[in-house]
Structure prediction request, 259 residues.
Amino acid sequence: MNIAWWTTFRRRSRLIWLILFIAIAVTVSTAMLSKREAIVHEVIIEIKPLADGGELLTMEEVRKLLEAKFPSRDSEQLSKVPLVTLEEAIRAHPMVEQADVYVDARNRVRVRIEQPEPLIRIIDQRGAGYYLDANGDRIPLSRHYSPRIIVATGAIPAYRDSIMKHPEHILAQLVQLGEKITEDKFMNALIEQVDVRNGEMYLVPKMGKFEILLGDANDLESKFSRLKAFYRNVLPSAGWSQYKLVNLSFDKQIVCRKA
Prediction:
């Protein structure tokens, strides 16, 4: 093999690869620069519906939020649009669980939003109303949509952050109760309200004129099982108007008070 020829070939190959690398880098940089200087033609907002198909937040409300950060002008350039800041601003909205903001291939700003899922509606002792999700986070009431979920009323203290770190807090117990009721088809169809009195939870059923004293949120599976047995075995023979209170707060017992 001709060593001189091989050395020349290797040098030329390296030069060719270097030229190709530079050409690709220039092409990519030019494309990125062109993208940044492109004019925004449209802003498209997509809001993922809640599990029941509803929306706490409307596109118009999102658009108003966008207008504060992203003025709609024909001459607006993408290089001047703070997409990261815009995304952070949208995510900070209490009715937004997740938000993604990006520019598509047609130079359109696309905003995709996921909403938090309300678990239980709270009306506290001061009359303040809001929702709680499964994480115990507070969600403000929507001005145009009310999901059909359990309502909690009565002696409920004011909301505070990180309530799930304090399982003894009545709001944390209401979240636990709301989750268990939602997961149970029978209970979800039966219970429409929870009323808090002296630190204890009373369930208000859709069927029957009595109240159900639950106590706290401990041992909910056992309490639900006893309540189902009461509806299945006692009420059909005793009658729906015989009782004013069904007490599940005692361990492994059902104590009923007659009307």
Summary: The chain has two domains: 42-114, 120-258.
